[in-house]
Amino acid sequence: MNALDDPETDHELVVVRQDAASGLRAIIAVHSRALGPAIGGCRVSPYATMSEALKDAVRLSRGMTYKCAIAGIPYGGGKAVILADPATHKTPSLLRAMGAFVDTLGGVYITSFDSGTTRDDVRIMGEATAFVAGIAEGYDDASASTAAGVLRCMAEAWHSRTGRTLNGAHVAIQGLGNVGRRLAGMLLDAGARLTVADVLRGRMTGLDAQVVEPARIHAVEADIFSPCALGAVLNARSIPELKARIVVGGANNQLESPTDARRLGDRGILYCPDYLANAGGIVELHHQRLGQGYDAVAAHLLSLADTLREVIRRAGASGLTTAEEADRIAEARFGKRAA
Ligand code: NAI
Fold first, then answer.
1. Which terminus in the chain has less CB density within 10 A, N or C?
2. pTM of the predicted model, to two decimals?
3. Of 16, 49, 10, 4, nearest in space to 33 by CA
């Protein structure tokens, strides 16, 4: 089924641009602007078809609505996708054409980086539009704030289960990229013990951690499992093998299907909804746009942990999963229409 025929596609706006001069083929999807202009990164990927790209844009922009709402920032959900191989087709003229495309929407959608794009790419898009975020001078890579948000939520989840700090907790991290590697450093500083895995062995260099094969990281005898690589890692096959009692990680779309949240709950595993755990990066972009510094970001990241505490409390009272309770909080904030 085409994504636009799916009854779940309740988007405000989906726009396609095909520009022969630059070779740009791109889609911008705006899910909701109930809380403010739509914000979300621009992904560059060699999608085989327009339908595949559309499906991604629709899914990812909806996710951004939930992430902004749960993080308490005044933005709606949007996402852009460019059908191109980032290694070979991401030319400055393509990026400028994308910037011009963003500009045609007059601020309805604000773009930034995502998988396949860098801050430098966003700077080039910014030559053609003011509606870009995440490239202000004086800020580091926003992945550090994403990792810090994961850490805050992890500390909250662990405390809710044990009453303790992360000092001495054993955390298994899947993926040591922008987010996972920074999270690993923060956890070591907090006194945690680490087991890690990455398909790129060089990523583990110099880290005080036990290393296991990527295929086994989810099944390590750890206190906490932290997916920081791929989506769909929590599924009917992996969940029965989990030894950890808590899952908190930076990866997007960790649940393969909504029923996997129930599978985790039935096993007594506390799951921090991914879009809450990994909202730190978008929180930083919000404060960058306000010209505020890292003190404001840090204070806001603490509120992610407060939200998780409330999610856990509500799930305990209602019998719903933490994923369902987080969705309810987000939907109440952006005013999801009843189906
Ligand atoms: P990245 O590409 O820098 O890092 C991912 C790491 O996972 C790489 O080192 C890769 O080799 C490794 N990896 C891939 N497959 C693996 C496997 N099967 N087992 C173990 N390791 C594997 O990506 P980044 O930026 O760290 O993002 C990680 C996740 O967090 C992604 O799902 C991303 O969408 C999500 N995310 C990232 C944000 C950010 O600020 N960077 C913000 C919100 C979400």
1. C
2. 0.96
3. 10
Which of 113, 179, 285, 304 to mutate to test ligand 1, by most ligand atoms within 8 A of the CB atom? 179
pLDDT at 337: 60
Q: What pLDDT does 9 receive?
A: 87
177 Cα: distance to centroid of ligand 1 (angstroms): 5
Kindly report the number of other CB atoms within 10 A of residue 23's CB atom. 15
Rounded to whole angstroms, the Cα distance separating 276 from 272 reads: 7
How wide is the angle at C-alpha 221 spanned by C-alphas 215 and 223, nearest 5°? 115
- In this structure, the residues whose C-beta lies within 6 A of any atom of ligand 1 are 142-143, 146, 174-180, 197-200, 203, 214, 228-230, 250-252, 278, 281
55 catalytic per annotation: no
Q: H or E element: which one contains 148?
A: helix 143-162
CA geometry: angle 7, 13, 17, nearest 5 deg: 115
Mean pLDDT by 10 residues, the chain (339 residues): 84 96 97 97 96 95 97 98 96 98 98 94 98 94 96 98 98 97 98 98 95 98 97 97 98 96 98 98 97 96 98 98 98 79
DSSP H/E element including 121: helix 119-125
In eight-state DSSP terms, residue 235 is S
Task: Answer left, alpha or beta for residue 319, where phi above 0 means left and psi between -120 and 50 means alpha.
Answer: left
pLDDT for 6 equals: 85
Q: Which of these, 62, 39, 56, 58, lies nearest to 109 by C-alpha position?
A: 39
CA–CA dist 106, 236 (Å, integer): 44
Mapping DSSP to helix (H, G, I), strand (E, B) and coil, where does residue 24 land?
Answer: strand
Give 338 Cα–ligand 1 centroid separation in angstroms. 34
Taking the C-alpha atoms of residue 246 and residue 92, their distance in angstroms, rounded to an integer, is 44
